[in-house]
Task: inverse folding
DNA sequence: TACGTGATCACG
DNA sequence: GTGATCACGTAA
C-alpha cells in the first residue's frame, strides 16, 4: 500500500528519515517496474547548513518549499542524479535523501540499466539507485503517489535498535552542522533477515 | 587517492 | 558573465 500524504507532511524530518527505512521505493517506466527497500537515508532541513535550502529559495531547491510528498531531484557533481523526498508542509523546506536500496522487483532491468551482473552494485549509493530505477530530473516536483513513482509499505517492521545513525556524507562545508547524526541506515545482519 | 563532469549560485 | 564549488562513482 502506498504511503499516505500524512506520512510526508509530518514536521520532524529526522523521524520521517527513520520511518522511511524498510519502505519500498518503486518506479514504473514503460511497463517496467523496478523497486528496492530503502536501507539508508539522510535528513536535511533549511535550519542547518547542510541543506540546499539553508540560504533560502532558489530555482533548484524551490520544490523543497512545497507541501511534502513530492520528489526533489537534482544533478550532483555534473554526473549523478540525486533523489530526495520532500517533507513537512508548504514553506517548511525539509527533505530526506535516499542513499541506498536493497533491490526487490525488476532486478534484471536494473542490472541492465547499470550494465553490471552484480546485484550488490546496482542500488548501493544515491547516484546509482536513481540510474537503476531510471529516476532523473524530469521527476523533480513529481507526486510520490502516482503510477510512475511512489513509495509503499509492505509491512516490513524495523526496530529502533536495528537503526544506526551517524553524521551525513560529503557535507564537510557545513561546519558544525556536518556533525549532526542525521544519517540513518540498517544494521547489516538484520537487513538480510528482513528481506523475505 | 585522483579526477571526471556540468549545473548552480554568489559574486560583480 | 565568471569561477569555485558540489548531498558521487570509478578506477587504480
Result:
Amino acid at each position: 500500500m502506498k504511503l499516505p500524504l500524512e506520512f510526508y507532511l509530518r514536521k520532524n524530518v529526522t523521524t520521517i528519515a527513520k520511518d522511511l527505512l524498510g519502505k519500498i521505493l518503486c518506479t514504473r517506466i514503460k511497463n517496467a517496474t523496478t523497486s528496492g527497500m530503502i536501507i539508508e537515508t539522510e535528513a536535511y532541513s533549511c535550519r542547518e547548513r547542510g541543506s540546499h535550502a539553508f540560504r533560502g529559495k532558489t530555482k533548484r531547491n524551490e520544490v523543497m518549499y512545497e507541501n511534502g510528498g513530492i520528489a526533489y531531484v537534482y544533478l550532483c557533481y555534473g554526473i549523478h542524479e540525486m533523489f530526495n523526498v520532500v517533507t513537512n508542509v508548504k514553506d517548511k523546506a525539509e527533505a530526506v535523501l535516499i542513499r541506498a536500496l536493497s533491490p526487490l522487483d525488476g532486478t534484471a532491468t536494473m542490472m541492465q540499466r547499470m550494465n553490471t551482473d552484480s546485484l550488490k552494485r546496482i542500488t548501493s549509493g544515491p547516484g546509482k539507485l536513481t540510474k537503476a530505477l531510471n529516476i532523473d530530473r524530469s521527476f523533480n516536483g513529481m507526486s510520490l503517489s502516482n503510477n510512475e513513482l511512489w513509495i509503499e509499505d509492505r509491512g516490513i517492521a524495523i526496530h529502533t535498535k536495528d537503526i544506526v545513525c551517524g553524521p551525513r556524507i560529503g557535507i564537510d562545508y557545513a561546519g558544525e552542522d556536518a556533525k549532526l547524526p542525521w544519517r540513518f541506515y540498517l544494521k547489516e545482519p538484520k537487513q538480510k533477515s528482513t528481506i523475505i
User: Anything to note?
Assistant: Residues 5-194 of chain A form a domain with the 3-methyladenine DNA Glycosylase; Chain A fold (CATH 3.10.300.10). The longest strand of chain A covers residues 32-45. Residues 42, 44, 50-52, 74, 76-80, 82, 84, 97, 99, 125-128, 168-171, 173-174 of chain A lie near DNA strand C (CB under 10 Å from a C1').
